Amino acid sequence: MVERPAHLAVKRWTSFIVGAIAILVVALLLARVVGNEYFFFAGYVVLQFIVLATAWNILGGYAGYVNFGSGAFFAAGAYTAVALIKAFAAPLPVQLVAAAMVTGLMGFAIGAMTLRLRGIFFSIATVAIAVICETIVLNWGFVGGARGATVLQPPAPAFFTSYTRLLFVIMTLLAVLAVALARYIETSWIGRGLRAIRDDEEAAESVGVPTLKLKLFAATVSGALMGIAGAPFPLYMNFIEPTSAFSLNYAVSALAMPIIGGTASWAGPVIGAILLGSVQQIVTVTMSSELNVLVLGLLLVAFVVAAPEGILGLARRLSGKAGAR
Amino acid sequence: MKFPFRAVLEVVGAITAALSVCAVLTSAYAQSKQPIRIGLSISQTGPLSGAGKSGLVALEIWRDDVNTGGGLLGRPVELVVYDDQSNPSMTPGIYTKLLDVDKVDLLVAPYATNQTAPIMPLVKQRDRLLIGNFALDVNAQIRHDKYFNNQPWASARDSAAPYLGLCRKLGAKTIAILAADAEFAQNLAGGIRAGLKDYGLQPVYDQNYPPNTVEFSSMIRAIRAKKPDAVFVASYPSDSTAIIRSVNEIGIGDNVVLFGGGMVGLQYASIMESLGSMLNGVVNYNTWAPEKTMDFPGIRGFLTRYQARAKQANVDPLGFYLPPFDYAIGQILAQAVTATGSLDHKVLANYLREHEIKTIVGSIRYGPTGEWANPRIVYVQFRGIADKNLEQFRSAGKQVIVAPDAFKTGEVKPFSQARN
Amino acid sequence: MSFELLGEAIIAGVLLGCFYAAVSVGLSVAFGLLDVPQIAHPAFLVLGAYGAYFLGSFGLDPLLAGVLLTPVFFLVGLAVYRFYHAAFESRGTDAGLRGLALFFGIAFIVEVVLILSFGVDQRMVEAAYIGKSVALGDVRIPMRMLVAFGVALVLITGLSLYLSGTFTGRAIKAVAQDQTALALMGADPVRIKQWAFGIATGTCALAGALLIIVAPVEPGLGRLYIGRTFCIAVLAGLGSMPGTLVAGIILGIAESIVLTSLGASWAPAVAFGLLLLVLAVRPAGLFGQR
To answer: What's the predicted TM-score (pTM) here?
Structure first.
């Protein structure tokens, strides 16, 4: 890879930060301006998927380790929050940090598993971890067991007319942070190392890439971000129960969105999540939820087979053709 | 790879565009105010759909009755119904949608406890009136002052008492408890556990199983090995069927004098028909049975009309369990709206708190937490049931009411004796 | 737990385990021998179960329905493998992530299509041997488990004989180990693999029928069986038929004992816990040479 002049990189970060701040301001404005509460209820889900998809892509897209257990990380984040609410009535920021720590540790653990397990064995092991986590929660009476737990939203701070609006803005912030982190990893030496692992782990090892360290780092960050995406979920829903929190839909979405958007760059998961997430939300208002999950599955298969580089790759190919002409 | 400023703006634009599409779509759903819209979710698929579909038919009969009589406050009534697939995690989303997208005037709770518990915080935060639909103890902790439940029991404790009384009557000293790990079943089993000491019962087996369990042989074997005198089961339709079948396959032992208790599904016509003689001897809760002590004014007439309609709709052909109560939910709303001339939830709640409501399931008065002030759950024992015969359940004597005393139509017999 | 109860639990576990082996045998072929990341195998099982349910609603015996559907599933398997091969294997690299994602997507589609056509309700079938039991002294054994046990043994023995006794069978085994040897035998590896994948998918019809004979089935059931089937396939040592049977029985007994002592709420974790243990300690499985 050619090193670019430093001032260009600085300029690119500046524009990224400006963009990020712009998004936050827009979110805050929306929270004041839009009247219909359902907008925030639906928008929150889209933003949550941006975080999940971005998190998945750090390990799956950059390093090539396919995590089928995203649902477990999401749910572990959510249940960490529930446990803290039940035990100490902990405020939301504490829940977020604690969730990130718990699922970051889980991520570290699956990172350590990559020592022995690669390819499908790694993926199956993540399914196993998901089911074991679910079983533990099922049997953990304190957080409601299989029957689930109801959680009351605290009163919303003065600026917001409802707590859902506050959660909407917080999730926007989390999405921006997650994307910034992914972008940093991607453009730094870490990203190069991860890509080397994905292309050929033995070769990377032999030229001195610290593969284990990098994989541990990527798995930890990925896990922590998934947990943080799940942490506000109980307050958002007012209710949580294991079957839906550990739902396969999270695992599928977390993997389908980056693959459809394009796994090579941070923008891929964002595009995939916005596109699929909004379609899902619009479709749930108008037609059955099964049909929209079916669309997700079909799109996943279609993209995996026909457009492995995702929408980003398609766009690049199109613009490349246009440029050649 | 370059990173142009434009790309960021495009992403910002894309998010904003996607979000505004959501906004436009949702606001398009805000409807004109003409009919009075009553919103609810009810299980039309999934394990609870057996009763859910029948309850919906009853509500539709009520709607048609009201509309042919000129509507409420001169406005026609419209039901806005969603299917929650018997899945508790679906209901918060559905009720948010009912409130913000469909903007309904009145809310009826989803059928059953598990689906209602998740929406209680939402309903309380929005301070809406909610008529409960067979939910057990969901308001005990949340204490929403605009919640009025329609089901003939008030708390797990007092619904457990008659069953514990039957244990004592049959001389049981030990009991096994098997309960689904879900809101309703756990509440019910909690009522039993709380009363064990008072009734001198020793628990020899007490286990929960997760929803979606299909294989009960191992648990039935374990229970049989403990040789309990009584068995209390709190289960859902598919598990209830599997448990009864398993008891039939594996056997439960000759010591058992009382078996059943809180098994949802043994009231559904299709399940009663398919289990047939396997039901004999089982003692289970019920809300209504064609016994002489249950003739409330209007209920027989309603059931005749319901059964005609159920045949067309291909839902529960008997309709004893949920339909009369769901028709009564309509009557509760109608009486409050008509008497107060208002759709204001505060006004309606005040009315319901203070007045007696006349329904086809009897007169209802409400207690402090929005439960019936005079609960009336009954326990029936299945007797002389033949296989593959739906018609038998229409006559008295098949589901003998054995407790409580006020509604009793026969004495309880030991399980093994009533089985043959 | 008393001694008698333990004995009963072990008997029940052996029967359950043979049934588990039957539902895993196709995966042992597809994943163990062919190296295809067939994570949609459990979804095909559930599809087979619904096939038996559908034909059963016309009065057909579920086992017979399973037998009748086997050739259909075989053809589906041929088609799926051809698609997979054309999309990935023939193009060379990077089948890993995308191959997994493909089968994951297929599993998901199968589940949703089942929900859309049959609803989320549990389904069961009627047959003379369902709901009855056989008494062995004080122990009563459900007849449906005996039927599943018998069919499972026939299925596994048959497949085992086929793989070791016929030319194609030996070629399938050779595909896994030595492609050059296979070429020397004069067989086209791609066609052999396609054939084998067809067989693997075909077993899902009969095993799926067993699934719905043993207990009611719902569309999401496949997820639970990801753990069970992969646990058995990995524990068996990738592709070994006797290994599959032994691994199935180990899992069956473990689950049965947990069910009888701790109760049903811990049972789903047994298979996955065992799987993690095997992956961590001996990824080559009990009977594996790798």
So the answer is: 0.85
